[in-house]
Amino acid sequence: MHDTFFTQAGDVMPDGTTQVPASDGPPDIPEIMAVADKVGMTILAPEGAAAGA
User: Fold this and answer.
1) How many angstroms separate the CA atoms of 38 and 42, rounded?
2) DSSP tally for the chain: helices H, then strands E
3) What angle is formed at CA 39 by the lines to CA 26 and CA 51, rounded to 5 degrees?
4) Which of these, 26, 27, 29, 43, has the minimum number of CB atoms within 10 Å of its CB?
């Protein structure tokens, strides 16, 4: 489950990469949640977070 999630939710880093590249924007939360749901993973919102956020 976890291998599939990270493979589908992220981009492959080139061999030999030792630093995480800078982000080109905020994460696509709806896409991440869709991938998680697809592989059977449940991601819980932090306590106190607004519903749907």
Assistant:
1) 10
2) 2, 0
3) 50
4) 26
Residue 24 Ramachandran class (φ > 0 left, ψ -120 to 50 alpha, else beta)? alpha
Look up residue 49 and give its two tokens: 């977070």
Give the tens place of pLDDT for each residue, 3-47: 999 889 888 888 999 998 888 899 898 999 999 999 999 998 888
Helix, strand, coil content of the chain in percent (nearest 5):
35, 0, 65
Reported pTM: 0.68
Q: Do residues 16 and 6 touch, judged by C-beta distance below 8 A?
A: no
